[in-house]
């Protein structure tokens, strides 16, 4: 990988701790500007030190307020913070709708809390590849804690698991429907449950329902090993989740339930303690290294899908374009399967040649 002088200077400025450079790098990543891949490639050598925390939950659960207080508390402990807020995509520009993040007020003016809004861009789970790359930029910059706040779109939020080390799921009090949603799929991604707005009526009942759900999940295999804790949990494509070995060390982790009142800062210290406990558990059990490996495996799959898709688009263009091919199908001259076979033929031939060359090299 080679970078031009401008990108080399940008990388040097980021590594030197210049926030303006960090902002420019993330913009370059999000816009997929020319040269961004070379830049991200250089970031990898400087990553691996940050603690990445995912905050998700239903709309109205108070995620932004809690993230604000969480960042403030970390700063009081002397740690630097990066916040990536995944916002709904604008149907007009593709940009983040809530880009000003006006609800994150406590840390305004503190340059050691870097807040960046990013558009979900319609990606399943609200997390685009650009988000994972932005995390690397903040990690390389030297942020101690990186917090990802998601859109809160429901079950598809499982995608956050591939980016965060620890995932907290927020649940508003007195919301039986939200508990049912959790049962439908969010349970397995939660490392910590947070009942925010715990001073409201129904909070106690919500806590009890969560405890029962976690207990039933442990008995049925939905919690712990069947979630993202297991070593095989993130294998496969976007739509499949593997089954982890029941003997995996992380089976012993039971998601704690924390009560908070984010607007008052109540319970935030307890929340931070539980996040730290999970981080310690990941490291001590050896699961953290496995999660990182699985994360990189998924990144490789994603990049390969993107690149192969681009190659196939070029092949389609060389074949007359998708519209012309579709018209040929309409007129009965061919069929989609035959077209797919023809378009893939040169790609398959190229892959076979590369494999043969690799075999020849290893044999020498």
Highlighted features:
globular; alpha/beta; single chain; Rossmann fold; 7 strands; seven-stranded parallel sheet; about 375 residues
Q: Percent of residues in beta strands?
A: 5-15%
Mean pLDDT: 79
Alpha-carbon Rg, integer: 23 Å
Low-confidence stretches: 90-103, 223-227, 230-250
Q: What percent of the residues sit in helical stretches (DSSP H or I)?
A: 40-55%
Number of helices: 11
Q: How is the largest sheet built, in terms of strand order?
A: 3-2-4-1-5-6-7
**Largest sheet composition:** 7 strands, parallel
And the CATH topology of the largest domain?
A: Rossmann fold
Give the H and E element order.
HHHEHEEHEEHEHEHHHH
Give the CATH H-level superfamily of the largest domain. Answer: P-loop containing nucleotide triphosphate hydrolases
Task: Just name the CATH architecture of the largest domain.
Answer: 3-Layer(aba) Sandwich
